[in-house]
Specification:
- One of its GO terms (biological process) is ribosome biogenesis.
- Belongs to the DUF177 domain family.
- Residues 156-197 are annotated as: Disordered.
- This protein has 197 residues and is of the alpha+beta class.
- The chain has seven helices and seven strands; from the N terminus they run βαβααβββαββααα.
- It has helices at 8-13, 28-31, 36-41, 107-112, 131-142, 157-161, 181-189, and strands spanning 5-6, 17-23, 47-60, 66-83, 90-104, 121-124, 129-130.
- Strands 2-3-4-5-6 form a five-stranded mixed sheet. A two-stranded antiparallel ribbon has the order 1-7.
- It is elongated, with a radius of gyration of 21 Å.
- The protein starts with a strand and ends in an 8-residue tail after the last helix.
- Bound molecules: zinc ion (ZN).
- Zinc ion binds next to loops.
- Zinc ion (ZN) binds next to loops.
């Protein structure tokens, strides 16, 4: 029995709330993001807290027509091992995100949504919806595009010794505010029922 499988339509219609903790080890795509030296040392345990809340409510469509729509708000949080791109050492980053989706019947309904309705991302529902997959998607999207310490504990050895005698090059311009094309793509591809399994 899998506690993560829910009837998403019923979940929203009855305003259910569910929450729990999921082990990092149960999220294969997150596991691959853990730096190799952390995995090898056995320190890569961890868990993430998640909370899902369904709601059904009347909405006014862009064309002025009233409708009843279903929503799912999913929040995820927890510490994640990543490799700092500045000093190349592993560190723990706190992930924290909350997203509200509008639940739709199928892909066609997702595509048929008026453009003005894009306030919430469409999520294709199912009677056997796997919350864990969505939790993992959200955690993956919450990963920083350029992981790095706020302040690195020490300069990386190869830079510190500077065996070629040159001075350290100027740091690259900050790029962390740029939206990632991969994150955007992942958001577009998000449809749990056909996630290439
Ligand atoms: Zn660092």
């Amino acid at each position: 029995m899998n506690e993560y499988i829910v009837d998403l339509f019923e979940f929203a219609r009855t305003g259910r709330v569910a929450e729990g903790d999921v082990q990092l080890a149960a999220l294969p795509r997150m596991v691959t993001e853990v730096p190799a030296e952390v995995s090898a040392s056995g320190r890569a345990q961890g868990e993430f807290h998640w909370r899902a809340e369904g709601v059904e409510k009347p909405v006014l469509r862009a064309d002025g027509k009233p409708a009843v729509a279903q929503f799912l708000t999913l929040s995820v949080e927890g510490p994640m091992w990543l490799e700092c791109q500045r000093c190349l050492t592993p560190y723990q980053e706190s992930l924290d995100s909350e997203t509200t989706f509008e639940i739709v019947r199928d892909e066609a309904a997702a595509e048929a949504r008026p453009l003005d309705d894009d306030e919430f991302e469409a999520l294709v529902g199912s009677k056997h919806f796997d919350l864990r997959e969505l939790i993992e998607e959200e955690l993956l999207l919450a990963l920083p595009i350029v992981p790095k310490h706020e302040v690195c504990p020490s300069v990386h050895e190869s830079l510190a010794t500077g065996d070629d005698g040159l001075t350290e090059p100027a740091p690259a311009p900050e790029e962390e505010d740029k939206p990632s094309p991969f994150a955007a793509l992942a958001a577009l591809k998000r449809s749990p029922d056909k996630d290439g399994k």
